[in-house]
Every structure is written in structure tokens, then in C-alpha cells.
Amino acid sequence: MTTIQSLTLGITQGLTEFLPISSSGHLILIPKLFHWPLQTLGFDAALHLGTLFAVLFYFRSDLRRLMIAVFARKNPSYREDRRLALAIILGIIPAGTAGALANDIIETRFRALEVVGANLIIFGILLIAADFFAKRNEQKSANSGVGPMRALIIGCAQIFSLIPGASRSGVTITAGIFSGLSRANGARFSFLMSIPLIAAAGAFKLRDIFGSGDISVEILPLSIGFISSALVGLIAIEILMKTLSRFGLAIYGIYRIIAGSLILLFL
Question: Where does the secretion signal sit in this chain (predicted)?
Fold first, then answer.
């Protein structure tokens, strides 16, 4: 793998893991557009570890409070944080279970560009609808938290994000908004819930590496992929969190519809 390839894929992973435009879809699309060979499992693991670092660093204060809340059960000031920690655990169960059971099927049967294109359009339309819904209900939902039922609804919706082109962040933010969260609260919960799932995805890649016996390491492309996905991931989270209230989500939905249409028409 060349430096340009690893840098391009690292930037792609960092941007699309957190912006609601589908990382898996773009990581299928980019190599096919440039006729690059499929990236190795080790490189995929490096990309996931990079974006994991990005979200851990960005939400380090939130994570610190959640960790304290788990152990400070008698402290009433951490009650909302304990509630959020429970919601995150409940939210990751449906997609985590589905991913563990259906990972091989998804990797072999749903990686076609037609699937990516269709999902970009379908979930782009849903994202625009969610943005319109959020604008009408923003004041009412601004202070709403994530309870157990809402967490399970978002978690069940997240199962769809396992299919390339859907977008994990897009699906969870959309489900959060339709369940009554504001755009900002939906994005924050989506990113916090992504931490164990990104870690699990990286762990699965590492398991596959050692299971296949292919443990050859190319230090330079792995390093470039990790660093670029981490840095760009941080920027992507910052962009989304800072622009949600001003620009909303519709711009990402429009991009998805255009990109999906071009894929179906020309690729």
C-alpha cells in the first residue's frame, strides 16, 4: 500500500465515521474508483483504532464523569450520568449482537456498490426528514435525556447501520431525533455509544488477522492510516457538533442522495 493510498483511506475513515455519510460505504467506493487493491485487515484495524482514539479524546470529560458515576452510586449529583451509562450499555446490545452473528454475511453479501448507493439515498432521505422534524421540535426536546426505552429504540435502529451505505452515526442520530432528542443530544449519544462498537469492530479485525495467520506488518501505511484517521476524526466530530444548530443535518442528507444517485447511475 502506498503513502497516498493509506493517507486517502485514513482521511476517508476519519471523516465518514463521524459525519453521517457512511464510512463503510466510502471505504468500499474509494478503492474501486481508483482501482486499488482491497486494504488488509491490519490496515482496517489501524483505521478503527484511529477513530476510536479521536472519539475517546474528544469526549474525555464525558467519559471521566461516566466512569466516576458508575462507582459513585450513592452520590446524587451523578444520577444523570449513571442513567446515561445505562442507556449506552442498553443501546449497544442490539447492534453488537447482530454484528457478532451476521458479520460474515454482511462482509460477503452486502458490499456491492448497488447496496451502498441505495442505502446512501434511503437513509439520506430519512436524515433530511429527521432534520425537518428536529427543527419543529427543538425547544421541546432540548432538555430531554436518554432513558432505557429510548436507548433500546436507537440501539435497534442501529442494526441497519451494519449494512454498508447506511452510516452508524446517521442512523443513530436519525433514530434519536425521531424518538424525541434534539440534534445535539442525539449526536452526543451517538458518539458516546460508538466507543464500544468501534472498539469491538477493531477487535474483530484483530481476531481475523490472528485467525488467518496473516500477521505481516507494514509500519508506515499503518501509522499513516492511524494518525490521519485520528486527526481527521477529531476534526469531523468538532465540525458536526459545532454546526448542528446552525446548518442542521439536511446538507449531509443531500450529499448522500447525490452520491448514491451517481453510484447507481454510473458505477
Answer: none
Cα distance between residue 45 and residue 68, in whole Å: 29
Whether pTM exceeds 0.70: yes
Number of domains present in the structure of the chain: 1
Beta strand ranges found along 3-116 (DSSP E) = none
pLDDT digits (tens, 9 = 90+) for 215-230: 556 789 899 999 999 9
In whole angstroms, what is the distance from residue 2 CA to residue 211 CA?
26
Domain that residue 118 falls in: 3-266
CB under 8 A, 24+ apart: contacts of 209-216: 209/41, 209/42, 209/45, 212/41, 214/40, 214/41, 214/42, 215/42, 216/42
Torsion of CA 91, 96, 102, 108, to 10 degrees: 100
**For residue 240, which of 87, 7, 15 has the smallest C-alpha distance?**
15
Intervals of the chain under pLDDT 50: none
Torsion over CA of 137, 140, 141 and 144, rounded to 10 degrees? -170
